[in-house]
Every structure is written in C-alpha cells, then in structure tokens.
Amino acid sequence: xxxxxxxxxxxxxxxxxxxxxxxxxxxxxxxxxxxxxxxxxxxxxxxxxxxxxxxxxxxxxxxxxxxxxxxxxxxxxxxxxxxxxxxxxxxxxxxxxxxxxxxxxxxxxxxxxxxxxxxxxxxxxxxxxxxxxxxxxxxxxxxxxxxxxxxxxxxxxxxxxxxxxxxxxxxxxxxxxx
Length: 178
Description:
By secondary structure, the protein is α+β, with helices and mostly antiparallel strands. The chain is built from two helices and twelve strands; from the N terminus they run ββαββββββββββα. It has helices at 22-34, 156-177; strands spanning 3-5, 10-13, 39-43, 52-60, 68-69, 75-81, 84-89, 95-101, 111-114, 119-124, 128-136, 145-146. The strands form three sheets. The protein has a seven-stranded mixed β-sheet with strand order 1-2-3-4-11-6-9, covered by helices on one side. Strands 8-7-10 form a three-stranded antiparallel β-sheet, with helices on one face. A two-stranded antiparallel ribbon has the order 5-12. The longest helix has 22 residues, at 156-177. It is globular and about 50 Å long.
C-alpha cells in the first residue's frame, strides 16, 4: 500500500485494500511534528463521498479540538496508542460525561461509539494519541456544528485558556467521582 500526501495533515491510503502498520504510524508521527494543528491522519476511505469513513489519526497533546457535534452521524474510536478523555457537553457547555479511553490491555476502555450528536472534544492524556476513527459519510464541509461556548481554534490564546480550564473542570469531576 502506498500513501499519497494530500495536505500537510492528510494522507490517502491508495488502492482497494488499506493496511496500516508501524511504517505508516511513523509517517503520521513525523507529520504531526510538522503540522501547524499538531495532528495528521490517514484516510482509508477513497474520497469524501464514501459512505463509510475510516481514519487513523495522530494527535499531539497540545492540539486544540474545538467542541463540536456531527448532526446525523455517529462516531467511533478505537485507541491504538495513548490515552484520551472524550468530554461530552450539553448544548450550554456543561460537562455531561467524560469517557476515559486507553490502549488495549490497560485499565481504561479502548473503544467508544457516540450514536447521537453531542458536543464533544478531546483532552489528550499522553504525549501523542493514535486512534482509529470511524464515522459515516459523506463528508460535507461546514456540516459539523461548533460550540458557541468554546473559542475558535484560530484564537490560540483563548483556545489555550479554554483548554486549561476544561482540564481543571474535568479533573474536579474525576476527583469527586473517585
């Protein structure tokens, strides 16, 4: 299988059969370091119109992912490497749930599926997260809804402050549950 780089953050697995191993993971790890958003992915689906989208995504812990939801879609993660807290919000920005995930063999679950459109984001708990994400297509730019309660990723100062506050809020919830 060969990878074709479509952008600094996106690679396409060419051909009718996609197989991802350590060489492809190493390509993602190198791309993350060079990416302005500190994330990169391999698309196993041939194009945005495909009805099933599967991606191997590498995300650096410093990457900010603005809370968002995907109306009419489901989303599933299978952790390959690293740990993450998926923070699920109500429409007002209050934390509804935190799903703690880690690699197989650890103490955290390694898989989750969100079948309804909830606002959500990630707090990456390791230096790097590598995840297999599955969602239904087709991809339509602008179809994701971004939360008004969280800053845009282009405002890096506000995004960093929001992320730091979110980490604090999640830690308080986890401490209270312990």
